[in-house]
Fold this sequence. Notes:
globular, five-stranded antiparallel sheet, 30% strand, mainly beta
Amino acid sequence: MTTAALTRSALAALAALATTRVPAVVAVIAAASAYAAGPSGEGIFAARCASCHDAPPSADNRAPPKALLKQMSVARIVRTMDFGAMMSLTYMLDRAEREAVAAYLGVPGEDRAPPPSAFCAARSVALPKTEAGAWNGWSPAPTNTRYQPAPGLSAAQLSRLNLKWAFAFAGDVNAFAAPAVLGANLFVGSAGGSIYALDAKSGCIHWHFQADGPVRSSMVVAPLDASGTRHALFFGDQAGRFYALAAETGAPLWRARPDEHEAAKLTGTPLARDGVVYVPVASWEESRPLNPAYECCTFRGSVVAYRIADGAQIWKSYLVAETPKITAENPQGVREWGPSGAGTWSAPTLDAARGLLYVTTGNNYTGQTALSDAVVALKIADGAVAWSKQVTPGDEFNMSCNRGAGCPGMDYDIGASAVLERLPDGVERLLVGQKSGVVYGLDPSRAGELVWRARVGKGGINGGVLWGLASDGRNVYAAVSDLGRRARADATAFDWRGNGVDPATGGGLTALDIRSGTTTWFAPPAKCPATQAICSPAQPAAVTAIAGAVLSGSVDGHLRAFAATDGKVVWDFDTVREFKTVNGVPGRGGSVDGAGPVVANGMVFTTSGYSRNGGMAGNVLLAFGVE
């Protein structure tokens, strides 16, 4: 969709609004009129932002004044709109609009260089020759079981875990990207787009790199060539850019944009194997219809394969096969496009024996296609679809549905990676958790034939399995979010759509037998303390397993370890507190959400802080070890 096309529909919609004498409509129309030459940051600020940022501060208006914003860097303002304190109000702005507002307000340059005292003596890292005990990517193994076979500590020792160090991400209110840990080295990204190579034992910084957008994906390290003497660090950002850095020094090697759609974003952890890195592509576009003048929707989810050595694209496989076309025009004269959607939010899963990648997909934004809400098997060689299994047909949803547009879908994305398990007798299961609250056991030897399904939660837009399952070869472990809703007057917190969040609902951890799907045990959610202002027992974070134990984080800010035999809590740490950090930056914990804990080389690592969906803000990475 061209800028000019968007301008025409925006002007038509805004002209209709003008007859209602809505305040600031004149400013909005003026901003839209200038769109053909590029968006006006000043006009967008006047229309969308000035009512708060130009108003006097008060108990009801805590927005920083424009004078303060003008002291911030352009890059920081963009990142704040992307995934900071302003994200709930800026989803309707496209990339060009965000950058225009930031350029109007901010100071060129960066403002996130770590203090010199935070650095290690060595400004580069040496990587181990083997990955024994490492956690590299979404899971220690490319089958995405999130099971650590060599944790360096036992389940019995978890009760003796103590905080070793805390590291704070400067200026951030969210901390949701899991680290990769190889030997003495830890690599992690942040909501502010900062990438750090840390010493895993002390938390000091070896090197630092600044990406263009927020980083939610886990880091992946892979050899650059057959000699294995040099390595690349791979990750994507939420501005839709993919990076390859020298893992030893942080120097840029190459970067790519897997999809040119302005709303494309990269959230899923890439998979690197045999000289190729595979990149899943999702998008923000589902939220763009919060702006009633937006022509929805044209994004198509995809997976892109790049050659590790030089970043050359090998293949790209779209998950909506058909190129979107104009399908209708709404009463305001805004054109509608389709089919669209089916982004893939999570890490691909490797089936090396069959030469396949398994990717899970989200809902359609417009139209209905066969690969939405599905597990799709792609051939590693060329990206062709070998087979697919759709678990929820007809799930068509975008943010206009919240305005009563009558969409047929339920927003039941599969946001978690598929888990591939092989039992001792050779039986295989492909395990899939969905926002519907259902976990599926599929047979990969029979093109994803359904073997069993088990309900583990109520499900919903913020319900069911959000980030990821874990499996220890006997059970698959599913923690559920199931954030409930309340009327606004009764709610103590709000999700990013402005809906009231019920602090008393959600949570629970279920162990399912991998072969049959029957429930082995259920651990009910913890009760929130009455003293905590914002609290929820929901457990949306990805789950992690070691022999004899399962770790799960919660919106209430706790990280807990459960016995794998019966689900009893064996360790509990409350992260909602101020921390003295090793890098000297003010740090505070909040909700434990996102990629989940990492266990490597005798230590447990977790991020804490997630301000979306009524959660508690925070900005820390915490490292635990046994005394």
